[in-house]
Design a protein that fits this description.
mainly beta, Jelly Rolls, TIM Barrel, Immunoglobulin-like, nine-stranded antiparallel sheet, eight-stranded parallel sheet, 37% strand, binds beta-D-galactopyranose
C-alpha cells in the first residue's frame, strides 16, 4: 500500500452528483471483520485472502479507535508526528477490513455496477474479489469504483486496507479528533444501461422579472437524453438540457425554503431532485440573494457525536438543525469538510445559507513557518483539485449552497488559486470563499476569522470612503467584496462575550454580511465512568503525547447537544425581530430583521408584571412591516408605571409566531424587549435589640474576625470581600488585541487576588448597630480593599447590612468582580430570584436575559462546564431566595441591584480541577453578591474583554437585608 505520495487516490470514476434514483442500491453497512496492525511495515501481506474468522469485528460505518481498537487523539494545529511530507510515521495503525457478501438480485440485474464509499479516514486501498479497484484520498469525500466486471453472482470478498495516517494527513489537519476508519456508508449501486449518471441543476432566479431560469444538464449513459417533469410548474416531460424561463416561480431562500420536486427520467432510470431557484451575487460590496442583501446568522458545524465521532445519524442531524432554527441560526459553514451528503438535503429543506467547505487544511505547516506547505507545491496540485472536484460535484444541486469554500487555514499558494479557478469555471453560480487568501485575489467575499471589533468597524468604513490614491489593485479589488467573519465569538467555556457588539457593527455597515460563531458543538468524547456514569474527555485524556487539551470543547451546545448559555444569548443577538420599548412606555418599535419575510406570521404581545404579579396584558396590532424596516406601535395606558413598585415593574413585549414551523410550534418567540422600572424598597425600621460585638438581633458574629456565623439559626460565614473568579477558558488566554500582556488568569495569580487575606481592623457595637471594619489584602503586595460593614437588627429572623468598599491606591490589576462572598452549610437546592435570567449572564453576555421572577433548580445555578470554571452569575438581581439543605437565605437590596452567583463548588476547587466529574462534593453553598463584574470576552480566539467591560479597582456600596427562611418555606 502506497501512503506517501502527493497524488490523489486512483481508480475511481469521475466525481458526480449525489442523486436520489430508483435504480437499485444495496447497503454494505453492518458488522465487518477487522484487524488492526501497529504499522504498515508489520501489517501482514496476505491480509486479503487469509482466513479472517479469528479477526475481530467492527461496525461499519464507524471509527476503529471508538470501538476498542486503540484510543482517540486530539490535536489542533500541531501535527501528531514529524512534519516530513508526504511521509506518515512508521507508528501508524493499519486497519484491515473484510466483508464477504452476496450482491442483491436487483443490483446484479444491471450489468453496470458501482461500489461507493462516502468517507474513509485517511487513505484506503480497495480490493474486490482479488482485484485492486484503487485507492482513496479525501476522508470526507465520496469515492466510487466501477465494479461491473468484478462483482459476482455468488460470494464476493471485499477487502479494504485503511491507514490511519498517510500523505493525506498533511491535507487534513483540521482542529478535531483523529478518528480513522470507514466512518461513512458503503453502498453497491446497480446502474441501468441508459441511466442518468450525473445531473447539474442550474436554477437561477431573476428577481426583477420574478422568473426562474432552469437549465438541467444530464449525463446519460450511452449518450442518451433525459426528460424533465415538474408537475407543480406545469412542466411535463420536456427534454432536459433546454433553458426554461418559468414566470411566477417562488424563489428559494433560507427564510422561505421553497423547493419544487422534479423528476428527470430516461427509459431506464428516474431521478428526483428538489429545485430551489435563487441567484447569488455580489453588487456594490454587498452579498445579495435574489436581489436582496442577506445577513448570515451562522455557526460552524463539525459532525461530531460523543460516542460515535463523525459517524452520521439522521435523527441527530435533523434535530440539531431544528435546534439551530429555533435559535434563529440561518447559516452554516460546514467546517472543515463536506458533511454527510444527507445533511445537504436538510439544509435545502429547512432553509440554511451554506458555505460548503472542501476537505482541506494544511495548518500543521504553520509550526514550520509554512515551509513545504502543499498549497504552494505543484506536486500536490492534482490532490488539491481532486478534493475540490469531489466537493463541488457531490453537492452542486443543492440550493442551500451559496458559496464553495476552498478549505480552512492552508495559508496561500497556487494550488488554492487553481481550485478557485476550477470551481468558478465549473459553477459560476456560486461564490468562492477562502479565509486564508489575505489579499482576496481569488475569492468573491472578504472573509476573516476573529477580527476584533475595531477592525470590523474599519472594514465596514472602508467601502464608504474613496480608495486612497496609492491603493494596490488587490486592495481595490477587496473593496468591492462583501465582508463576513467565517469564525467569530469563540464559544469556549463561559462566553462568548461581546457578540452583541459584533452584531451592532454587522448591521451598521452595508458591506457586512454577518458571520459564523465558532463552533456549534463541543467535541467531547464520552466514556463510561466506574459506576456507569458518562464522562466527557478531551485532548490528553487518552495519553496522547501531542495534544491541545480542552480546546476541542468550544461549542454553543455541549457534546450531547444541550444548549449552553452562549446559544441563548446568540439567539437573542440574531433574533429576526428586534423590540424596543420607549422609556416612557408610550410606544414600542418593532424592527423586522428578516431579509425576505414580512411580519404577517408574527403577533406582538405585551405583559406588565409588578412585583411578580401580572397586572395587565394584551396584543398589539402590527401594521405591515416589510423586511429590514421598523414600525412603531402605541402602547396602551395600562402598560405604564403608576405607583412605585417594591421590587420592579416590568413591561415585556414579545414577538411570537402565529403559525407552526417544522422547528417550532406557533407561539415561538422571535424577538422580545423590556422596560424595567426598578423598585424602591421600604427601608426597614431598626428593632429594639441592643447590638453587641458578638450579636445583632438574629445575627451571631465571631469577635476574632468580625465575621457572621449564624443568622437566626442558619449557619452562614462571611462576608469576605472577593475580586477573583475561577478563571474561565477565556481568562486563561490572550485576546488577539493584547498579546503583549499575560492572560487575566496569570495576571490575577501574580497579583494574588486568588489568595486574599482579611484583617479585622475594628469592631464597634453601639448606636443601634455593629460596625465591622476590615482590610482585605493580597499576599506579597500592598494592594487592599477596606470594607465598612454596618449590621442592624430589624426582625427576629433578619438583619440589615450596609456595605462600603474602598480600594487603596496600590492596585495595578483589573479585577474579575467586586463582591461579598458567603458560605452556607449544605448543598444548594436552588434559588428564586427577581432579576435578569433565567440563564446566566455577565456584563457582555446578557442579550437573552430578561427581568423576571425566576425559579432556578440546583442544576440551573451554574453551568456544568467540562473543564470547571466560573459560571452561573445572574446580573441585575434585586431579590433572591437561596435554598440549601440547611435552610434558605433571603437577600434583598435596599438600593441598587447586584449580580448573584450560587454554586456548589468553591472557586478554589473549580480552578484546581480539570474535569467536571473530578469536582469534589463540598457539601456547602457558595454565594457571591457582586457589586461590579468584568465582562468575559472571547480571548480563547478573538478579542479579550472590551475596554468598556473591564473592571479596574473601584469603590462600591450597597444596602441589603439578609433573612433566614426555614427550609420548608
Ligand atoms: C480556527 C480554526 C478552527 C478552530 C478554531 C479554534 O482558527 O479554523 O478550526 O481551530 O480556530 O477553536
Amino acid at each position: 500500500m502506497e501512503i506517501a505520495t502527493t497524488r490523489p487516490g486512483s481508480g475511481t470514476i469521475p466525481p458526480r452528483a449525489r442523486l436520489h434514483s430508483d435504480a437499485p442500491q444495496q447497503s454494505l453497512d453492518g458488522a465487518w471483520r477487522f484487524r488492526v496492525s501497529p504499522s504498515l511495515r508489520t501489517a501482514p501481506d496476505e491480509w486479503r485472502d487469509e482466513d479472517a474468522a479469528d479477526w475481530g469485528t467492527i461496525e461499519v460505518p464507524g471509527h476503529w479507535n471508538l470501538q476498542g481498537y486503540g484510543s482517540p487523539a486530539y490535536s489542533n494545529v500541531q501535527m501528531p508526528f514529524p512534519v516530513d511530507p508526504p511521509h506518515p510515521p512508521d507508528a501508524n495503525r493499519i486497519g484491515d477490513y473484510r466483508l464477504d457478501f452476496h450482491a442483491s438480485p436487483e443490483v446484479l440485474a444491471h450489468g453496470r455496477r458501482l461500489l461507493r464509499f462516502d468517507g474513509i479516514e485517511s487513505a484506503a486501498e480497495v480490493w474486490l474479489n482479488d482485484t485492486l479497484l484503487g485507492t482513496t484520498r479525501g476522508s470526507r469525500l465520496t469515492h466510487e469504483f466501477d465494479v461491473s466486471g468484478i462483482l459476482a453472482d455468488g460470494v464476493n470478498r471485499l477487502a479494504v486496507r485503511v491507514a490511519q495516517f498517510s500523505d493525506a494527513t498533511y491535507l487534513e489537519n483540521q482542529d478535531m479528533w483523529w478518528l480513522p476508519g470507514i466512518f461513512r456508508s458503503v453502498t453497491l449501486l446497480g446502474r441501468p444501461d441508459g441511466g442518468i449518471d450525473d445531473l447539474f441543476v442550474h436554477a437561477d432566479y431573476d428577481a426583477t422579472a420574478s422568473e426562474g431560469i432552469l437549465d438541467i444538464t444530464a449525463v446519460v449513459d450511452q449518450g442518451g437524453s433525459a426528460r424533465l417533469t415538474i408537475a407543480e410548474l406545469g412542466i411535463d416531460d420536456v427534454p432536459a438540457g433546454e433553458t426554461l424561463r418559468i414566470p411566477g416561480v417562488e424563489p428559494w431562500s433560507a427564510e422561505r425554503p421553497r423547493l419544487y420536486g422534479a423528476t428527470v427520467r430516461t427509459g431506464s432510470e428516474a431521478v428526483t431532485v428538489r429545485i430551489g431557484f435563487r441567484r447569488v451575487e455580489v453588487r456594490d460590496a454587498r452579498l445579495l440573494v435574489n436581489g436582496a442583501p442577506i445577513m448570515l446568522r451562522g455557526v460552524n458545524r463539525h459532525e461530531h457525536r460523543p460516542r460515535h465521532g463523525r459517524v452520521f445519524d439522521a435523527t441527530v442531524a435533523r434535530d440539531e438543525l431544528l435546534l439551530m432554527k429555533r435559535h434563529h441560526i440561518n447559516a452554516v459553514r460546514t467546517s472543515h469538510y463536506p458533511p454527510h451528503p444527507d445533511v445537504l438535503d436538510l439544509f435545502d429543506e429547512l432553509g440554511f445559507w451554506v458555505i460548503d467547505e472542501c476537505d482541506l487544511e494544511t495548518h500543521g505547516f504553520e509550526h514550520v513557518g509554512w515551509r513545504g506547505n502543499p498549497s504552494a507545491d505543484p506536486a500536490w496540485r492534482d490532490a488539491f483539485l481532486d478534493r475540490m472536484r469531489r466537493t463541488v460535484h457531490r453537492d452542486k444541486n443543492h440550493a442551500s449552497v451559496i458559496m464553495w469554500s476552498l478549505g480552512n487555514e492552508s495559508h496561500s499558494g497556487s494550488n488554492l488559486e487553481a481550485m478557485a479557478r476550477w470551481a468558478k469555471l465549473t459553477d459560476p453560480s456560486r461564490l468562492i470563499h477562502y479565509e486564508g487568501d489575505h489579499a482576496s485575489r481569488y475569492v468573491d467575499v472578504y472573509s476573516r476569522m476573529y477580527a476584533p471589533h475595531d477592525e470590523v468597524r474599519e472594514i465596514g468604513e472602508e467601502t464608504l470612503r474613496p480608495a486612497p490614491h496609492d491603493a494596490t489593485p488587490a486592495e481595490m479589488h477587496r473593496r468591492t467584496l462583501p465582508f463576513l467573519q467565517c469564525e467569530f465569538g469563540h464559544a469556549m467555556g463561559t462566553g462568548p462575550g461581546a457578540l452583541q457588539e459584533y452584531w451592532d457593527l454587522f448591521e451598521a455597515y452595508p458591506r457586512h454580511a454577518g458571520g459564523f460563531v465558532w463552533e456549534w458543538v463541543e467535541q467531547g468524547i464520552a466514556v463510561d465512568g466506574p459506576s456507569g456514569e458518562t464522562r466527557i474527555l478531551y485532548g490528553g485524556d487518552f495519553g496522547e503525547d501531542v495534544h491541545d487539551g480542552n480546546f476541542v470543547i468550544d461549542g454553543l451546545v455541549d457534546a450531547h447537544r444541550n444548549p449552553r448559555p452562549g446559544l441563548l444569548h446568540y439567539a437573542a443577538v440574531i433574533a429576526p425581530v428586534a423590540v424596543n420599548v420607549d422609556a416612557d412606555r408610550s410606544a414600542v418599535h418593532v424592527a423586522n430583521r428578516y431579509d425576505f419575510l414580512g411580519l404577517a406570521h408574527v403577533a406582538v404581545h405585551w405583559r406588565r408584571v409588578v412585583d411578580g404579579e401580572v397586572t395587565a396584558s394584551g396584543t398589539l396590532d402590527l401594521p405591515p412591516c416589510p423586511p429590514r424596516s421598523t414600525v412603531s406601535v402605541d402602547l396602551p395606558e395600562e402598560s405604564r408605571t403608576d405607583a412605585a413598585p417594591r421590587v420592579a415593574d416590568v413591561l415585556t413585549v414579545e414577538a411570537v409566531t402565529t403559525v407552526a414551523a417544522p422547528w417550532a410550534d406557533a407561539g415561538h418567540v422571535v424577538g422580545s424587549g423590556q422596560h424595567v422600572t426598578e423598585g424602591h424598597p421600604a427601608q426597614p425600621a431598626a428593632s429594639a435589640a441592643e447590638p453587641r460585638e458578638d450579636s445583632v438581633g438574629a445575627a451571631r458574629f465571631d469577635v476574632a474576625t468580625g465575621g457572621l456565623q449564624a443568622l437566626a439559626g442558619l449557619a452562614i460565614a462571611g462576608p469576605t470581600v472577593g475580586v477573583w473568579r475561577a478563571p474561565t477558558d477565556n481568562d486563561r488566554d490572550l485576546g488577539n488585541d493584547e498579546l503583549d500582556l499575560p492572560s487575566y488568569a496569570d495576571r490575577w495569580r501574580a497579583a494574588g487576588i486568588d489568595r486574599m487575606v482579611t484583617r479585622l481592623v475594628d469592631l464597634s457595637a453601639g448606636d443601634g448597630g455593629l460596625v465591622v471594619r476590615t482590610r482585605t489584602g493580597t499576599p506579597i503586595l500592598a494592594s487592599a480593599i477596606d470594607a465598612r460593614l454596618r449590621w442592624t437588627a430589624i426582625a427576629d429572623d433578619a438583619v440589615r447590612l450596609d456595605v462600603e468598599l474602598e480600594p487603596n491606591d496600590a492596585w495595578t490589576t483589573e479585577w474579575a468582580r467586586l463582591g461579598l462572598d458567603f458560605v452556607l452549610d449544605g448543598e444548594p437546592l436552588g434559588a428564586d430570584i427577581a432579576g435578569y435570567g433565567p440563564m446566566p449572564s455577565y456584563p457582555d453576555l446578557r442579550s437573552a436575559a430578561r427581568f423576571g421572577w425566576w425559579h432556578l433548580d440546583a442544576d440551573d445555578l451554574t453551568v456544568d462546564n467540562v473543564r470547571p470554571q466560573e459560571s452561573g452569575s445572574r446580573v441585575g438581581v434585586r431579590d433572591a431566595r437561596i435554598r440549601t439543605r440547611s435552610g434558605a437565605l433571603h437577600v434583598s437590596t435596599l438600593d441598587r441591584s447586584f449580580a448573584l452567583t450560587v454554586s456548589r463548588h468553591s472557586r478554589q476547587a473549580l480552578a484546581a480541577t480539570a474535569h467536571n466529574w473530578e469536582l469534589p462534593a463540598e457539601g456547602r453553598t457558595f454565594v457571591s453578591i457582586d457589586l461590579a463584574q468584568s465582562g468575559v470576552g472571547t480571548a480563547t480566539c478573538g478579542p479579550g474583554v472590551l475596554p468598556r467591560y473591564r473592571l479596574p479597582a473601584r469603590s462600591a456600596a450597597i444596602s441589603l437585608v439578609l433573612r433566614h427562611e426555614p427550609a420548608s418555606a
